[in-house]
């Protein structure tokens, strides 16, 4: 789950963040290795040695400004099996990516956040879904893109600040088994920068 506590943008304990990130990664590795619902095929679990990750990178934990779409548009996302899934573009997240490497310029970026279209009257809350591609896609990370989820503790309003931690970006289950069908990030969420944070996949 991606952190969305706006206070965390100013009150950030990097050591605690690092410990919590490593704990989440260890927990996920255990799930993949042992849980019956693991996407790793049963015959391959004995040889599973853990997921590959980029090193923890605080620079890729950013604060995004939310623009809420009161009348969200339908976005059709292709899936890995050739189907289409209907999502609503409910929020746009704008953020600056500040990078300390002298060879990299800071970047002003946007990502759309979606919720799956539901029947009218269904008001059940669900996390915001943020699929994306970046310059690591197909090289250091999965060719079908990666996902993040945001779970705000209240209804998002225009101008809200949300913490988006790319260190929690994960590979969809369809990368590990063809039994899963996963939506592919739409072109509006293709970032023209590398995001070397989160899960790797080769």
Automatic annotation (TrEMBL):
Please give the organism.
Halobiforma nitratireducens JCM 10879
Q: Where is this region: Disordered?
A: 23-54
Specify the superkingdom: Archaea
Q: What protein name applies here? A: DUF1684 domain-containing protein
InterPro entries tied to this protein: DUF1684
Where in the sequence does UniProt note compositional bias of the Basic and acidic residues kind? 23-33
Q: What is the lineage of its organism?
A: Archaea, Methanobacteriati, Methanobacteriota, Stenosarchaea group, Halobacteria
